[in-house]
Amino acid sequence: TARRWALDICELRKPWIKSLYKTDKLEPLGEAREILKFARAQARKQAANLEHPLVCIDVIEEGIVSGPRAGLWKEANAFQSLLFSDTCKSLLHVFFSQRATSKVPGATDLGLMPRKITKVAILGGGLMGSGIATAMILSNYPVLLKEVNEKFLNAGIDRIKANLQSRVRKGKMTEERYEKALSLVTGALGYEKFKEVDLVIEAVIENVKLKQQIFADLEKYCPSHCILATNTSTIDLNLIGEKTKSQDRIVGAHFFSPAHVMPLLEIVRTQHTSAQVVVDLLDVGKRIKKTPIVVGNCTGFAVNRMFFPYTQSALLFVDYGMDVYKIDRACTKFGMPMG
């Protein structure tokens, strides 16, 4: 077809319309300006500190108003000036940093292959547990969700349903896909079915004694190759695994709320965690479309280690009598999406 079309153009049987000059998909000027106005408002709302989305819209407008060649000139000039901006340097840094997270000395450089994870168990169906379960089933991992009683279990499954329904409403998921994802979740009140699980993620409240008890139970009921992960945000992993002999397979898998939306996953390794376990979790992280970063077992790991002093300094200013709204505005103006 393409060959025939080219010959038809060559022999003047078909008009040769260069795509640069096509206007059949363009709205009338007034309408186009309204659309661009709406796009600008959206860009300002979503990325208040970024200049380049607005520059892109200006370039498009130039092409519509003054024709395609003028649009191309404006694009070339705008690109050149943006290329040397701080934002450009920072975005390049972020791009390469995100890719560098998958290279971990002492883990990914040992030639280890990730093991196949076929079934995941999650302890706790609260906000975090249900969010992690949602992230897993969206990437086709069968999930065993354990709770302490029927009421909590049903509430956890309802949260998963609500997470998925929100995707259906936004058009990100079909009804058929919704049913298929939901069918991957099995509820449990005991540990009987844990003998066939390859990865457990504990997401219960931040209580050391409770977590220690859970990990002692997991060691008893899970197969010897099973990875024992905790979603704790601040508790020392060595303390959590203190009452077990499985410290080489205990690891942190710290998700951020809402877990099925936020892209970051902190993989916390202790001095005992085996390199194989780290490699396995990096693989799972990628499969569930997260950006996994491997961090050490220290107070607050990476994110909260930065967040605590950030919050403390804000609170210090409040103690000194500074207007809270002023502090909030300084944070958002700096670029934090939440004040």
From TrEMBL:
SUPFAM superfamilies, per database record? 6-phosphogluconate dehydrogenase C-terminal domain-like (SSF48179), NAD(P)-binding Rossmann-fold domains (SSF51735)
GO BP annotations of the record are:
fatty acid beta-oxidation
Superkingdom as given in the UniProt entry: Eukaryota
Which keywords appear in this protein's UniProt record, sorted alphabetically? Isomerase, Lyase, Membrane, Multifunctional enzyme, Oxidoreductase, Transmembrane, Transmembrane helix
Cross-referenced InterPro entries: 3-OHacyl-CoA_DH_CS (IPR006180), 3-OHacyl-CoA_DH_NAD-bd (IPR006176), 3HC_DH_C (IPR006108), 6-PGluconate_DH-like_C_sf (IPR008927), NAD(P)-bd_dom_sf (IPR036291)
| Entry's Gene Ontology cellular component terms | peroxisome
Quick check: keyword Oxidoreductase in the entry?
A: yes
Do you know which Gene3D superfamilies this protein is assigned to? 1.10.1040.50, 2-enoyl-CoA Hydratase, Chain A, domain 1, NAD(P)-binding Rossmann-like Domain
Task: Establish whether keyword Oxidoreductase is in the entry.
Answer: yes
Annotated 3-hydroxyacyl-CoA dehydrogenase C-terminal domain residues: 300-339
Q: Where exactly are the transmembrane stretches of this chain?
A: 120-141
Single annotated GO MF: isomerase activity
Reaction catalyzed? a (3S)-3-hydroxyacyl-CoA = a (2E)-enoyl-CoA + H2O; a 4-saturated-(3S)-3-hydroxyacyl-CoA = a (3E)-enoyl-CoA + H2O
Q: In which pathway does it act?
A: Lipid metabolism; fatty acid beta-oxidation
Which PANTHER family is this protein grouped with?
A: 3-HYDROXYACYL-COA DEHYROGENASE (PTHR23309), PEROXISOMAL FATTY ACID BETA-OXIDATION MULTIFUNCTIONAL PROTEIN MFP2 (PTHR23309:SF9)
**Family affiliation:** In the central section; belongs to the 3-hydroxyacyl-CoA dehydrogenase family.
| Protein known as | 3-hydroxyacyl-CoA dehydrogenase
Q: Which organism is it from?
A: Australopyrum retrofractum
